[in-house]
Design brief:
Layout: H1 2-18, E1 23-27, E2 42-43, E3 46-47, H2 51-60, E4 67-72, E5 86-90, H3 107-110, H4 117-121, E6 132-136, H5 140-144
Antiparallel strand pairs: 1-6, 2-3, 4-5
Length: about 140
């Protein structure tokens, strides 16, 4: 099952690289570990908001067993789809903010930050102190030329 999940993740990763969107990721990692301790997971019903739903998700994708619950989004805006979502932390994250399994990290981690056009178009960004940021692949003027 783990090999199947790895292969599916690898295919998705390659597909994302080949069929790139109009957005690109720029910048570089600051190795702070913030992205490894404030992770959101979702399934077909939206963001994971209960430990029971996380366990169900882990049964379908064994690589998620490497994460633990690290908190909950308690934003006052209850209309925010992230309201009540659980935050997760990678078990491989060391105290110095570096990955203890860097060369063996899953595709999920290798693909951070992944480009999700609808997320970006709705104003989504990387974490506040992250060295990465999203930009457009071509400026509007370049398309006109």
């Amino acid at each position: 099952m783990q090999i199947k999940n790895f292969i599916e993740d690898l295919i998705q990763h390659i597909k994302n690289k080949i069929f790139s969107s109009k957005y690109v990721v720029k910048g570089k990692c600051k190795k702070c570990g913030q992205c490894c301790s404030t992770i959101l997971f979702s399934d077909e019903n939206g963001y994971i908001k209960t430990p029971e739903n996380f366990l169900k998700l882990c049964k379908r994708n064994k690589s998620l067993n490497n994460f633990t619950i690290n908190g909950k989004i308690s934003d006052v805006d209850t209309n925010n789809p992230q309201y009540g979502a659980l935050l997760f932390k990678c078990k491989s994250l060391k105290e110095n903010g570096k990955c203890g399994k860097y060369f063996l990290r899953p595709i999920f981690c290798r693909d951070y930050p992944s480009i999700n056009p609808s997320f970006i178009q709705m104003g989504g960004t990387t974490l506040d102190n992250c060295g990465y940021y999203f930009d457009v692949n071509k400026k509007f003027e370049e398309y006109l030329n």
